[in-house]
Design a protein that fits this description.
There is one protein chain. By secondary structure, this protein is mainly alpha-helical. Helix content is about 75%, strand content about 0%. It has one helix at about 10-60. The N and C termini lie far apart (about 105 Å).
């Protein structure tokens, strides 16, 4: 029928170890893709800031007249 034994500390440790191994495996496989996405996001952000800064500088550029 059903086995009604008590849950021991060893049982809990084995289950937590298996869960930790699964989470570690998942994070190791996803780490490289997350790193690539983060670097690409930073690059796009820097490019956007550069282009917006250039545009703002051209728009506000004044004409300076030099006389001798």
């Amino acid at each position: 029928m059903t086995d009604r034994r008590k849950i021991t500390r060893d049982d809990l440790e084995a289950k937590f170890k298996a869960l930790q191994d699964d989470v570690t495996e998942i994070t190791e496989t996803k780490k490289s893709s997350i790193t690539v996405l983060a670097v690409a996001g930073i690059a796009v952000g820097l490019l956007a800031a550069y282009l917006l800064g250039r545009r703002g500088g051209k728009r506000r550029r004044g004409v300076i007249e030099i006389r001798r």
